[in-house]
Design brief:
2 strands, mainly alpha, two-stranded antiparallel sheet
Length: about 180
């Protein structure tokens, strides 16, 4: 139990609160899993506990998949799901090959359950990668692009960025590429 007391001129505030170490709850994962639908902290706790477990990469991938599936079934709004997915992805890093496997499994889940979250994350990541590659190619060929061109590239979707990247080899100016 931690207490904190502030006082001035005979008046004050006294706070008293319990502190729990998350590892104390490691053997009670079912409690967090049951509360995912009503408490986003349960998702955070599950991700944190999974991140601290000493497991093999395939077991880590299985934990990450389970947490994401619980999150999908929880009924949160799109923005909340995306924020929690970013957190889970940050907490539970996987080797590239397992990350690709997991994404494939999540895409299959999305198709089964008609969810748009996974694909939107996949498209965002793909567009970000395409934008980085295109900016690098433009810089190598023409020098650093203007802020306006950089903004157009960051606003473009993955398909547009791919089309622009294909034009780099034959273009004489940046304007020939980013039309």
């Amino acid at each position: 139990m931690i207490t904190n007391q502030r006082e001035r001129d005979g008046f004050g505030v006294h706070f008293c609160y319990r502190v729990h170490h998350l590892q104390q709850w490691a053997d009670q994962l079912a409690i967090f899993k049951a509360r995912v639908a009503t408490n986003p902290f349960a998702v955070v706790a599950l991700a944190q506990l999974a991140a601290h477990r000493r497991t093999s990469d395939p077991e880590r991938k299985a934990s990450k998949r389970e947490i994401i599936w619980l999150l999908y079934e929880s009924g949160y709004g799109r923005d909340d799901v995306l924020a929690l997915l970013r957190f889970i992805d940050w907490m539970l890093r996987l080797p590239a090959a397992l990350e690709l496997e997991l994404r494939g499994e999540l895409i299959a889940l999305e198709e089964q359950q008609k969810m748009s979250y996974v694909m939107s994350i996949e498209r965002m990541a793909e567009a970000r990668g395409e934008a980085r590659v295109l900016l690098r190619l433009l810089t190598l060929k023409f020098g650093p692009p203007s802020p306006e061109i950089q903004q157009r590239i960051s606003d473009a979707d993955a398909d547009t960025l791919l089309a622009w990247s294909e034009r780099v080899l034959s273009a004489d100016t940046i304007d020939d590429i980013v039309d």
